Amino acid sequence: MERPTVSLAKISLPLSLAASLAAGACLAPKLHAAQPPSSPAHTVSESEAAFRALARDVYLYAYPLVIMDLTMRQATNVPDARSVPRRAPVNQFAHYRKYPAADAREVVRFNFDTLYSFAWIDSSKEPVILTIPDNKGRYFLAPMLDMWTDVFAVPGTRTTEGKPGHYAITAPGWDGQLPEGVERIQAPTSMVWLMTRILTNGPADYANVHEFQDGLQLTPLRHWGKDYTPSDDQPVSRAIDDETPPLQQINALDGVELLSRFAQLLNVYPPHANDYPILHRMQALGLNPGKDFDTSRFTADQLQILRDIAKQAQKELYEVVSKASIGNVRNGWNWANNLGTYGTDYRRRATVALAGLGANLPEDAIYPNSFVDANGQPYSGRHAYVMHFEAGQLPPAEAFWSLTMYDHEGFQVGNPINRFALGSYDTLNYGADGSLRLYLQHESPGRDKESNWLPAPAGNFQIMLRLYSPKPEALNGTWAPPAVRQVR
To answer: Is 361 found in the same domain as 467?
Structure first.
């Protein structure tokens, strides 16, 4: 039997490619009058370009969902919430009782301003009720992400004034009754990532934060109002790689492997309502919600394009990050005021999934990144740098701000003073005029300056500012971080 193949004529071209192909047809007729009809080779070339463009677009659309799924599977593949640090079964909290160690690799760009209480909430069988205790004036936020990485709810200081409450997370289509005093939060997907962050003023403050963490509870609806203790003997899958960071595992997949996983996940997690155009386009690849990915429809050349598109798309995403080509770019810094929700900007969503899974809404936090100094040169631990804030130009944040150091991959690196960040909550030395100088270098700048020293790794590095509850001037672009200058 002849093997069916993809009809390239049905592939919807992205606007840029469609425009470029259409441009040739708009040339003056006299330029084409003496030209023979397009050769088969030319037609195939255009068809191949269209196929490659579609593969790229679909890969970027699929990428965040596949990363989220593996992140969830790895984080919850434990028997209980105590035996493995920073991990817990579904519908249980994994409390980070202290700042992450230098070797923590679950997520890139950890913050060192808050303690985390993470949970993966599965409401596919019934609603799960989140209980938030009295925060006693302590800043916190509890963003909830659907499996497409969009934030859809954020109980916390900004939105609920930090008041205690009970919130039922319900799956799409659930229409039952909730107990009195329980507020409903309808989730776009049945699996939700809850990423609670609680402001922590250093190790001496841990006990106070732990009290708040211990008051966080997740209760299945059928157990509400009863004495409920989660199971401490959940099954563990040996098929899941619990050691390799999810990002590395996903980036090692070729395009066919990733899209095969994606097709399975489409059976579980519904796309957003505004995803219809890309859903329609990817039908040309045989990708439809509710169906497996059948690769027998492709020619050998098409299969190779699909396999290769993974590395090509990843390269594009890394270039977006390294060239700071998304969001605002000033003084060697780049940042976006439109993270947390992405609409149909799938490249931006994929870039964030690669660079820092779990971004907050801009109203809750913004994250200026810097990869180069004032001269446009990549940061290196071989040099010494100074970041100088003029008086009145400190990061404008209602809650707090911090500056965190990472290696070139986005992970923290051990150092002699076990310091990964500096911020407004630290005891810093300010100038007589209120200005502030921070020292970024591998070796100590001297005991008299160590309070303002952010240790750098020996190799290349990057830095990130975090502004929690940023003020209007930070969101509208009136304020920008100062350039970091090399001094040695």
So the answer is: yes
Give per-residue pLDDT as tens, 174-222: 999 999 999 999 999 999 999 999 999 888 999 999 999 999 999 999 9
**Same domain as 300, residue 188:** no
- Count the domains in the chain: 3
Task: Indicate whether 339 belongs to any domain.
Answer: yes
- pLDDT tens profile 21-49: 222 333 333 333 334 444 444 444 779 99
Rounded to whole angstroms, how far apart are CA atoms 455 and 415? 7
CATH number at residue 303: 1.10.3360.10
Give the pLDDT score at 110. 85
Looking at the structure, tell me whether residues 199 and 294 fall in a common domain: no
Mean per-residue pLDDT, 261-267: 97
Q: What is the pLDDT of residue 20?
A: 30
Write out the residue range of the structural domain in which residue 284 sits: 8-23+42-68+248-322
